[in-house]
Amino acid sequence: MADNKSDIYKTILKPSKEVLFKDKNSKFFCYAFPVKTEEDIKSHLENLQEQHQKAGHFCYAYQIGTENIVYRANDDGEPNNSAGMPIYGQIQSFDVTNILIVVVRYFGGVKLGVGGLINAYKTGAQLALEASSIKELTINIEFVISFEYELMNKVMRIIKEKNLNITNQKLELDCEVTISVRKKDAKAIYNIFDSIYKVSIKKV
């Protein structure tokens, strides 16, 4: 991975449209959702269970995080590793994170066998990802810069010159500005502010 790519990750910002895949009378409804917490995941699963009350299986996989990765694959009653892991394999194949993929199955009376299930869940996850708009985002680090009011112009000039993104500010006698910096630039930006007398900078 080239250095300028080391702080870039791929994700989706809005849910995919519903995709339907059929195999031997079984119906597989496939979805991808952007998620950041376990609560987000629980809420999407509950909504789908409400929507598909007669479905037999809600198999899913998710991955959260850009550096400390958390993931899980769930077969929801299908044979071991025949559903959740094939779905998770597609998350890895598309190289996306902060994402939940759910494949909802209605059994159609004909058994697919483990090989058939692996193929169906893998295909379902792939279709959900292909129906999603995948975006590249940067991993950002937030710093709080603290300084006295008389240093405001100096600090603001650097922020403007370096084209830094301010996410929060409190400009009184004691000022605090929160900035968001791309991970690859973080060290250099930290050093600039750290070297100014009476200015302190710390990671959020």
Tell me what the structure shows.
- The chain has 5 helices and 11 strands; from the N terminus they run βββαββαβαββαββαβ.
- The radius of gyration is 23 Å and the shape is elongated.
- It has 204 residues and is of the alpha+beta class.
- The protein has helices at 38-51, 84-93, 113-130, 152-161, 183-194; strands at 8-12, 19-23, 26-34, 57-64, 70-74, 99-106, 134-138, 140-148, 165-170, 174-182, 199-203.
- The strands form 3 sheets. The chain has a 5-stranded antiparallel sheet, with helices on both faces. The chain has a 4-stranded antiparallel sheet with strand order 9-10-8-11.
- The mean pLDDT is 94.
- The chain is 31% helix and 36% strand.
- β9 (165-170) and β10 (174-182) form a beta hairpin.
Short description:
This protein has 204 residues and is an alpha+beta fold. It contains five helices and eleven strands; from the N terminus they run βββαββαβαββαββαβ. Helix content is 31%, strand content 36%.
